[in-house]
Amino acid sequence: MKSDQRSLMRLGLWVFVALMVVEILEYIVGVGLKRGAWPFLVILAVPGAGLIIYYFMHISQLWRREE
Amino acid sequence: MAALTGIIKGLIFALIGFIFGGGIGFLLINAAGRSGTNEPVIALGYLFALIGWLFGAGLWDAWGREWVGLPARKLEVNGWKRYFRFCTNHKVIGVQYLVTFVFLFLFAGLLAMLMRTELIAPGQTIMGPNTYNTTMSLHGIIMIAVAVATIMGAFANFFLPILIGAEDVAFPRVNALSFWLLPPVVILLLLTPLFGGFDTGWTAYPPLSVINATGSLFFLMAFITFGISSILGGLNFITTVITQRASGMTWGRLPIFAWGIFTASMISLTATSFVAVGLIQVVLDRVAGTSFFNASQGGNPLLYEHIFWFYSHPAVYIMILPGFGIILEVITHFSRKPLFAYKWVVGSFFFIVFLGFIVWAHHLNTSGMSDYLYIPFMVTTELISIPTGVVFLSALGTMWLGRLWLRPPMLFALGYLFNFLIGGVTGIFNADVPTDIHLHDTYFIVAHFHYTMMGGVIFALMAGIYYWFPKLTGRMYNETLAKVHFWWMFIMFNVTFIPMFWLGINGMNRRVFDYPEALGGVNMFVSIAAFLLGASFLVFLTNMVYSWLRGPVAEANPWRARTLEWQISSPPPEENFPEPPQVVGDPYGYGIPGSVHAVLNPAGSALNTGGG
Amino acid sequence: MALAKEIHGAYSRLHTNRLGLWLFFLSELFIFAALISSRFYLQGFYRPAELNQLLGLVISVILVLSSLTAYRAEIASAHGDQRRFRLNILFTISLGLIFLIGVVIEWREGFHFFPPSTGFGTLFFTMTGVHAFHVLTGIIALTILYFLGRSGRFTSGSYWGVEGVVKYWHFVDVAWVLIYPTLYLVS
Predict the structure, then answer these.
(1) Are C18 and A16 in contact (CB < 8 Å)?
(2) Which one, of B331, B357, B496, lies nearest residue B413 by Cα?
(3) Nearest CB partner across the interface for B291, out of C4, C118, C144
(4) What domains lie within chain C, and their CATH numbers?
(5) Domain range list for chain B
(6) Fewest CB atoms less than 10 Å from the CB: which of B149, B286, B288, B367?
(7) ipTM, 2 decimals?
(8) What CATH number does domain B88-550 carry, 1.20.210.10, 2.170.120.12, 3.40.50.970, 2.70.98.70?
(9) Dihedral, C44, C48, C51, C53 alpha carbons, nearest 10
(10) What confidence tens digit (pLDDT) does each residue in B548-599 have?
(11) Mutate which of B265, B269, B272, B291 to test chain C, going by most C C-beta atoms within 10 A?
């Protein structure tokens, strides 16, 4: 593997770790709280989706013209 | 035969698909132990038949082959035969849309004639309640489709790429796909009467739409298919405007019609998929036994009304924004003046898109929704008069002290302004909750939305047809017949629909084949006026058919207009522009010394456009 | 097309394709928005006690993991690393299939505790069903991608097909990240 490929692969791994943390926290909050979990879930799920959209789907390609 | 190969292949593949999907449906019914229903067979059969139809009609040759590593096949037919094939040229698709929808428009108009025949006297005249309701529903949905897709499908396809100086739309194959999704829609709608019709009107409110005859399922599937076509069209136009503009065609130089299409596409891209969910929920309630709208199982029919109008109110702006675009375009060219308050109009278009999404509940004023929703939705609804007012002021400001050239397109544009004003002013009574509770579901509403839809969108469509006919066909129509058509249609339209306001205030309900004895006289009057209104389209049809075949050859620029489509031959060459045009100025700079819109062959001699 | 490139130099074909795909995602997002609003409109924050929470977490983790392998496939393809590209696509397809098996198990339990004719079941089966349909189409697309990749269709300079399908797969994951708490976890 070339070095930039390796660093991109490592970045993906870190994003995955962050997403795992989000999912597990969501699970703990959702199963643990009997009521009123939804504000915490919003706080967790929306940035989770944001991580995928920004790092995995490269949304910034849309406004970054040079490539 | 080469003309019909695609269609025949599509039909055969559709049949195979139907047998395959229907078979799965049949097995599922048996596995679930449900009997007495064949709707899962129809629904699954249709899903696969649709896929089969698309692949057979040309999706496979143009696209699917690449998915298995084969080169895509180029369409090898030319001339008139292309119009029956999966052709990716935007001009061919534009004509396909225009002809299809003009015929649908005339067909649905005939249905309206049937309805007025039934309503000519109180009591049953020629048809029973079920037939009447199916006729009314078919008239409604076909006209909605005409209003949504004719200007977008025909004129945006044909002229948007030329107006912005492009070779084609951004995704030509998606464009062809969105047209070829339409034949199944038409077939499904025409089949509904054979399966018990559908008596819900085009809104398909549950619980009725869940429990009525199978015709309703056909209608729902047709609506969903039409929605997919509309979404793909919107996606294509947005991308086209953003990425395919000629060099120098900055956002501030974009013709106003392109802005109308761009903003309307934003709505059709997003809101349409929202309503598809509502329709799918009704289909699931019918086919899979879910209970979205079954109140005894925790469902709620009001959910449907919210989802439906979250699309269907913005949908009226899908219809009207391209209409505004055509009207302002025509008015500025035929007043020989720059478009007044261009930037404000563009801003208003976006404001209309935004407001369109937050007004839907004014359709639910008598539905029993939560009380706190009435006032906010009343306020947002009335806010819409601000951006539409800006559009009106722009039209008036453009005409102010201009040299009006009263050719047929301009006449229709002026008729539009008159009708749409009445439609808009009567809308205030529907937006206000206290008056609307009285007027809801009466002929007042019918008259109101016919003033905006027929008096508005159809007049804009006619303005567009008379404006662009020479460019589309390369031939000129008969001016006298066109003017006769305008005055006949304009007068009879008003004579037909003004009395309907009175009928509505006096308690005549919509969607009913019968009415109180006392309203008989006015209804007789309205019916006769409606027949005369219908007859005006015979003039239109004669003029169009004759002129297309035998009319005098049109010049490249009969209106001496400045926008790009008039600078190339009529009809436009295959590639639109021999060389990429260079846009250097404002499209509407009439009367401004030295103003130039575009240079058509930047490299060669300076053949400038505009001036006039 | 060469001509088109000259005219619209500012926007390449690739950029146009990306924009179209993102607009498609935007449109799709409204489908899931309508489903999520239906859930809250009809059922509020209700969730049945019989919901298999552990299974829900496991399939969520599997789908996120499949996003990682899809990402690795795209990066490998962009660098012309065909072997690693194909391997990761195969991983992604397998994880997608495991996800679908998880949904089937859920559905079997669901039929028992909250069948689709009941209030919560209606939403549960519709939302997971619509999502599983997206997963299924994604798997079909990935399979096509695998075979195209094996026949050498993609190079490090030209891999729009890979990019598009992988983006779609990530979008399916985004949809699940939003659906999962909506269906399983709110209370």
Answers:
(1) no
(2) B331
(3) C118
(4) 2-185 (1.20.120.80)
(5) 1-87, 88-550
(6) B367
(7) 0.93
(8) 1.20.210.10
(9) 60
(10) 999 999 999 999 999 999 999 989 998 889 888 899 989 998 988 888 888 8
(11) B291
